[in-house]
Amino acid sequence: MEIFRPFGFDKPLFLTMLALILIGLIMVFSSSGIMSSDRYDQPFHFFIHQIIGAGLGLILVVGILWVRKPFYQNANIIYALLLLTLFLLALSLIMPAVGKTNRWILFMGLRFQPSELAKISLILFFAYYLDRKKDKLDEPRTLIFPLAILFLFLLLIIKEPDYGTAMLLFLIAAIMLFLAGVRLKYFLALGIASIGFFAFYLFQASYRMDRVRAILSPTDDPQGASFQIIQSKLAVGSGGLFGVNIGQSSQKLFFLPCAHTDYIYAIVGEELGLLGTMVILLLFLVILWRGLLISWKAPNLFSQMAAAGITLALFLQAMLNISIVLGLGPPTGFPLPLISYGRSSLITTLFGIGILLHISQRKGSSRRKK
Q1: CA-CA 20 to 30 A from 207: which of 71, 161, 319, 364?
Q2: Beta bridge pairs of residue 2
Q3: How far is residue 89's CA from residue 117's CA, in Å, rounded to a whole number?
Q4: What pLDDT was estimated at residue 224?
Q5: Of 40-44, 56-60, 272-276, 352-356, which gets the smallest average pLDDT?
Q6: Are 266 and 343 a contacting pair, CB within 8 Å?
Q7: What residues does 98 pair with on adjacent strands?
Q8: Residue among 219, 343, 215, 338 at smallest CA distance from 268
C-alpha cells in the first residue's frame, strides 16, 4: 500500500529545475546570438527553439504530475518504450549524416536524438527487471537478459558514433546493478567484457586516440585535436571571479566550437565568472541531494532504483560535461543538462525529472511522513 499526495512533489527539486532552465535560456541566447545571425539572419533562432523545447518539456512534467498512477512502472509501457528506443537507434544509423554522425532521426524538418531517450528507457527497464528479479540476483543467468539489452544499446549508440553516451549508459547500468545488490564477483566478468568492448572501439577510431592524447599533451597539437580544450580553458580563465558580463564573451565569436551546446559552461565561466560556474555546480548538487532523498523515501524497489538511476544520470552527465570543459577529459559531445542547447536533451531530461517528481509524491503507507 502507498499514499499518493497530489502536489506533494519535491519543491526544492522543482525550483532547482526551473532555475537551471532559466539560466540555460539566458546562456543559449548569449552564446548563440551571433552565430544565429550569421547562419539564419536573425539572432533568436536557437533561443526560440530552446524555448519551444523547454515549453514542451514543462508541459510533459505537469502532465506526469497530474497522473495519479505510476504509468512508468507498467511493464507494457516499459517494454514498448524500450523497443521504440531500439528501433529509433537502428533507424538513425540509416538516416542522412549530420556533422559526419548518424545520431539523429530527421522527420519533416525536425531532428530527434534517440540516444537521449535511451537513458530514460534503459533506466526504467533496469529498475523494472531488478525489482522483478530481486530474489534471484545471485544467479548468473538472471543477469544475461538485461546485460544483453544493455550491450545492444551500447553497440547501436557507439556505431552512430557516440562513444561518450555509450560509456555513460554503461556506468549508470553498473551502478544500478550494484545498488540492487548484485554480487561483486559478477562485476569482475562484467568489467572484463566491458573493457574489451570499449577498448576495441577506442582503438578502432584514430580521432578518439587523438582526443585522449590531446588531454595528456594539449600543447602538441594546439590547432587540431587540442583546439577546443585550449579555447575552453581560455574562456573559463578570462572570466575571473565575476565574469566579463552577460553577452560580452569573446570566445563565442567563432573561436570556441559548440559554444552553445557542449561548451556552454565555458561561456558561463567567461561571462559570469567563477561565481556563475559555482552556482550551476551547486544547483546540480541540489539535484543529487534531492534525487537521492527521493530514492531513499520511495515506496518500492522499482521507484528507488528508477529515482536513483535518473538522478545519477543527470548528475554524472553534468559532471562529465564540466570536466571536459575544464580540460579534465577528452571531448565526447556531452550536453550540460537543462542548460546546453538541444531540444532532444532538454525534453527527455525533463521527462526524467517529471518521473522523479512523481515518485516524490508517492509514499509507502507504513513510512512516517516528513
Answers
A1: 319
A2: 364
A3: 10
A4: 72
A5: 40-44
A6: no
A7: 101
A8: 338
